[in-house]
Structures are given as C-alpha cells and as structure tokens.
Amino acid sequence: MQNYYETTFVMTPVLSAEEVKKTVTGYSEFFQKNNAEIILDDHWGLKQLAYPIGKKTTGIYHHIEFKATSDLIDKLELMFRRDENNIIRFLTIKLDKHAVLYNDKKRQGLAGRNKKISSPSKTEA
Amino acid sequence: MAVRKDTIKYLTSPAIAITQKKYCRFKKLGIRYVDYKDPEFLLKFVNEQGKLLPRRITGNSLKFQRRVSQAVKRARHLAILPFVTDLLK
Questions:
Q1: Strands, E assignment, chain A
Q2: Does B68 lie at the interface with A, CB-CB under 8 angstroms?
Q3: How far apart are CA A41 and CA A63, in angstroms?
Q4: Which chain B residue's Cα is nearest to A106?
Q5: ipTM, 2 decimals?
Q6: How near does any CA of chain A get to the CA of B20, in Å?
Q7: pTM for the full model?
Q8: Under an 8 A CB cutoff, do B32 and A102 touch?
Q9: A71-82 and A17-33 are packed helices; what angle lies between their axes, rounded to 10 degrees?
Q10: What are A38-94's pLDDT values in tens digits?
Q11: Among candidates A78, A125, A70, which has minimal Cα distance to A102?
C-alpha cells in the first residue's frame, strides 16, 4: 500500500554545482529503483538559513514529493544519515489527505503563495 | 429594584470594553492544511521573538492551533523559521 510522503533536505553550501546535482540525482534514482513514484522534484536552491547550522548560514534546499511503501522510508533516512558531509538537515513527512489535496492545488497554482486567481475557486491559503 | 441598563454610569466608555469577536481563520476561510514550507503564513502565528502565539491571541480553534504549532516546529527544524530571534517581523 503506497502512501504519500514529502521529504525536504538541506545541503551544505560548500558543495559545487555538479556535486549538488550528483547527490540530488542519486536520491531520485533511489526512488525510481525502489519503484516509488516521484510526484514533485523541486530544487529551491541556495537559501538563507534562519539560524546557522554547522557554522554555515546558507543551505541548498531540495524538496521531493513521492508515493512509496512504508518500508522505503527507513532506507531513505539511513541514506540521509550516511550522507553526513553533504546533507546537514532532512525532514520526511507522511502526507494526509488534506496535505495531498493542498499540494495538488498548489501545483496547479490555485493555492498557496503564488495564487493565480484565474478560476474563482475557494481561496485556500 | 432592578437597575435599568442605561442608568448605569460607566467609568470608561463601553466602546473600549467591547472587543471584536475572535474567530478561527481556518474555519472561516476553509483552510484544511497548514503548510510548514510557507514562512509568510506561519509568521502570523509567531511573535517578534519567534515564539508561538497562544490561542487566546490568535483565536484559532484547538485543532488548528495544534497543526500550526506542528508546522512551525517543522519549519524551525528545517531552518525556515528561527527558534529564537529579535524583531522577526
């Protein structure tokens, strides 16, 4: 039974562009290999951290929304922990039905920050 | 002898005493999910020091206050929101 999950991880800004790409593609391949379905693969890029992590004040954020079986999550988190020098922070969340609905609407641009008031649907912040 | 309401002399004008009825913005706007990745929205529930505002100030219902606090804590974990700061807004 596949559930909806969403994971966000922060990489140290020290990484060069191709190292970032390598780690990111490594994880998306991990998902494809274990027949998990990636819904959204979103690279937020370099962002200012709200507080310094490991003496660094900026971090490269990456966000993946996917559908997977529950046993995959332990493997994923183990990979995050093993990837000590690249990944400084990660968070994996199981999405409930409201969250999945919100994310779908956000992808279509109906909800969330950049709301396009094209269709007069119920606005949902 | 029942005192008629309008004969009561108020020390301060009653207009000050009447506070605007607080409502849960999630019920009113029909919001069902609090996104922890959206800092502008979460900033409404956090004071200048970055601490969570209590329910009596935000006016949230218990169910959504818990979701907001969970979302803020997740945002703090991902360094989207600070744990403690000054003049956040």
A1: 3-11, 37-53, 56-68, 87-94
A2: no
A3: 6
A4: B35
A5: 0.82
A6: 23
A7: 0.80
A8: yes
A9: 160
A10: 998 999 989 999 999 989 999 999 999 999 998 999 999 999 999 888 899 999 999
A11: A125
- Write out pLDDT tens, residues A6-52: 999 999 999 888 999 999 999 989 998 888 899 989 999 899 999 99
Tell if the CB–CB gap between B41 and A10 is shorter than 8 Å: no
Q: Mark yes or no for CB contact B32/A98 under 8 Å.
A: yes
Closest Cα to residue A45, out of A21, A80, A66, A28?
A: A21
Nearest CA in chain B to A87: B78
CB contact under 8 A, B82 and A51: yes
Q: How confident is the model at residue B3 (pLDDT cuts 50, 70, 90)?
A: low
**pLDDT tops 80 at residue B4:** no
Contact across the interface for B78 and A8, Cβ inside 8 Å = yes
Q: Count the residues in chain A.
A: 125
Token pair, residue B89, equals 């807004």
Number of helices (H) and strands (E), helices first, in chain A? 3, 4
3-class state of residue B77 by DSSP: helix
